Amino acid sequence: MVRADYLAMKTDPVSPDLVSDDLNELMNVAKKLVHDAAKLGGLGFGTSFLKWVASFAAIYLLILDRTNWRTNMLTSLLIPYIFLSLPSGIFDLLRGDVGKWIAFVAVVLRLFFPRHFPDWLEMPGSLILLLVVSPGFFAHTLRGSWVGVAICLAIGCYLLQEHIRASGGFRNSFTQKHGISNSLGIILLMVYPVWALVIHFL
After folding, report:
1. How far apart are CA 23 and CA 21, in angstroms?
2. Transmembrane region positions (predicted)?
3. What's the pLDDT score for residue 117?
């Protein structure tokens, strides 16, 4: 006959309050983890994605202005906007030797072959020169701060109100020829800085 002997240990009874306190603490830690992960991953990804969208919208508006959108607006403000919102990978590439060679070729063409230097290359040439020669304060400190984002927002707001005024009102800016694409492009300029400022001050 097999006999099983069990060793009995006496322990203190577990208090339900201690268990609930531990569960509450675990829930708080989990909420903090999810919040921080969302802020670093999700919101950070959203900011970088919107930065790409804003840069391409600014380039798109610059191309429109150089081709068929000719307005009296100060579209040269798109150059500092692109400078401040350009994603880091492209910015670093154009600020390095690649950008220096492009700027060198642009300056040589402009100086020695002005007839072969088209008007539509003035703004991109200015952007390349700005990228290459800007001091470190503008290129690294101001560009990555909320001040640079606020400048982008101010440029977007100015261009939107100028576009609405040039179109003859808000309604006309969405109904005239090229109005919808231009208005949407300018609105996309404002989405990134608004989002970045909201994330910064959260």
Report:
1. 5
2. 40-63, 75-94, 101-117, 137-160, 180-201
3. 78
Residue scoring higher pLDDT (107 or 48): 107
Q: DSSP 3-state helix, strand, coil percentages of the chain (rounded to 5)?
A: 80, 0, 20
The tokens describing 77, both together, are 């403000």
DSSP H or E stretch at residue 79: helix 78-85
Q: Which amino acid is at 142?
A: L
pTM for this predicted structure: 0.71
Locate 60 and state its tokens.
């798109």
> What phi and psi values does residue 73 have, to the nearest 5 degrees?
-70, 155
Residue indicated by tokens 């707001």: 157
Q: Which residue segment(s) compose the domain that 93 sits in?
A: 71-136
CB 54 within 8 A of CB 191: yes
- Residue 183: its pLDDT value, please? 80
Structure tokens at 37: 């992960």
